């Protein structure tokens, strides 16, 4: 809010217009218009001290030296979450039981702790869905958590593979691809042979059909074989 901040600095400090303009990222004429109340709308001042953008000591330095450039305070580093359950938007939290039920039904080897980290839920909820004691179990429909947007396909696959390896279960191998490939090759080969036979028949028909006209005696048709 550069204009509101500039309005506060004009009203509450003796900083020069150039200093205020540089700090707020405005043109000096905009600051002049604010000071002269020439702006189209009367601005409500915004205190940069309360906003932790300036200190009174910094303002005092600027007031003592018109050539001094005000320095904005660096905000505190935002704390990043490294532990705890995954955050899920409020709009998708009602879909969590459906995603949990899908994993429990299709991949029971995945532990409650892994499901909790994957979807962002508690062990109590997972256990209640496993033993069907959840208060809303009648309305829970197993749905793929990836489709619901609760996790990514890569995360889900990694969790399933890790759980299967820990449980000594061999990961299923899709055998459909080799069979489909062989069937596709056979189909393409049959189509190519049929096309070749069609070309041969057409060629024989063309070669076997003679001219429908007769030439004078002694004249040889150069195109007849």
Strand content: under 5%
User: Helix amount, in percent?
Assistant: 40-55%
- Count up the helices: 9
Rg result: 40 Å
Task: Give me the count of strands.
Answer: 0
Mean pLDDT over the full residue set: 78
Sequence stretches where pLDDT stays below 50 over 5 or more residues: none
- Broad shape: flat
- What composes the largest sheet? none
Query: What's the SSE pattern?
Result: HHHHHHHHH
Sheet/helix structural class:
mainly alpha
Separation, N- and C-terminal Cα atoms: 94 Å
Main attributes of the structure:
single chain, flat, 225 residues, mainly alpha
Molecular structure report:
With 225 residues, the chain is mainly alpha-helical. It has 9 helices and no strands. It is 50% helix and 0% strand. The protein is flat.
Short structural description:
With 225 residues, the protein is mainly α. Helix content is 50%, strand content 0%. The chain is flat and about 115 Å long.
SSE layout and pairing:
Elements: H1 2-12, H2 17-24, H3 28-35, H4 56-64, H5 96-106, H6 112-120, H7 123-130, H8 153-167, H9 176-208
């Amino acid at each position: 809010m550069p204009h509101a901040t500039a309005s506060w600095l004009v009203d509450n400090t003796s900083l020069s217009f150039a200093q205020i303009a540089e700090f707020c990222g405005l043109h000096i004429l905009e600051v002049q218009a604010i000071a002269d109340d020439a702006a189209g709308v009367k601005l409500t001042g915004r205190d940069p001290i309360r906003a932790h953008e300036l200190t009174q000591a910094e303002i005092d330095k600027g007031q003592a030296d018109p050539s001094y450039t005000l320095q904005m305070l660096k905000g505190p580093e935002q704390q990043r979450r490294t532990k705890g359950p995954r955050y899920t938007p409020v709009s998708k939290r009602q879909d969590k039981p459906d995603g949990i039920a899908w994993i429990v039904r299709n991949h029971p080897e995945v532990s409650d702790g892994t499901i909790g980290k994957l979807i962002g839920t508690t062990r109590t909820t997972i256990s209640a869905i496993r033993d069907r004691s959840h208060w809303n179990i009648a309305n829970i429909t197993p749905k793929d958590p990836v489709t619901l947007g609760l996790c990514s396909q890569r995360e889900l696959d990694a969790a399933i593979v890790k759980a299967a390896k820990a449980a000594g279960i061999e990961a299923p191998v899709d055998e459909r691809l080799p069979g489909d490939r062989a069937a596709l090759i056979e189909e393409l080969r049959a189509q190519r042979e049929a096309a070749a036979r069609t070309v041969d028949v057409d060629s024989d028909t063309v070669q076997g059909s003679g001219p429908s006209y007769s030439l004078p005696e002694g004249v040889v048709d150069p195109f007849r074989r």
